[in-house]
């Protein structure tokens, strides 16, 4: 049996851009992606702390060190610049393997989206 389990989480990052007329996705600072063990094109769930909206999309690599968290395309309607979001990725794995899995939890500075420490 396989189950879906938390793989990675960026807890409370601030939206820096909302680009309605873009093809789609979320653009994330490459440094944040590496720290959270998230790769380009990976499916993620976005949870908006400000309004409770939830959506799924895929990741586009943003410029390293930029702090960018940009919701693009229709997803831009679910956020405003400055909203705080949680970005979650999941993995499918064997039930027994999942019992020993340790997710990557990232708590960047909410104001700058930079990694603390």
Can you tell me about this structure?
The model has no long low-confidence stretch (mean pLDDT 95). It is globular, with a radius of gyration of 14 Å. It is mainly beta. It has two helices and eight strands. It has a single domain, classed as Barwin-like endoglucanases (Beta Barrel). An eight-stranded mixed β-sheet has the order 2-6-3-5-4-7-1-8.
What's the short version?
By secondary structure, the protein is mostly beta strands. The protein is 9% helix and 46% strand.
Distinctive features:
9% helix, Barwin-like endoglucanases, globular, 8 strands, 117 residues, 2 helices
Topology:
Elements: E1 2-14, E2 17-19, E3 25-29, H1 30-36, E4 43-48, E5 54-62, E6 69-72, E7 84-94, H2 95-98, E8 104-106
Parallel strand pairs: 1-8, 2-6, 3-5
Antiparallel strand pairs: 1-7, 3-6, 4-5, 4-7
Give the CA-based shape: globular
The SSE string, one letter per element, is EEEHEEEEHE
Mean pLDDT: 95
Question: Low-confidence parts lasting 5 or more residues at pLDDT below 50?
Answer: none
CATH topology (level 3) name: Barwin-like endoglucanases
Query: Count the strands?
Result: 8
Q: What's the end-to-end separation, in Å?
A: 38 Å
Q: What portion of residues is helical?
A: under 10%
Which structural class best describes the helix and strand composition?
Answer: mainly beta
Q: Architecture in CATH?
A: Beta Barrel
Query: According to CATH, what is the class?
Result: Mainly Beta
Portion of residues in beta strands equals over 45%
Radius of gyration: 14 Å
Number of helices: 2
Largest sheet data? 8 strands, mixed
In total, how many domains does the architecture comprise? 1
Strand order of the largest sheet: 2-6-3-5-4-7-1-8
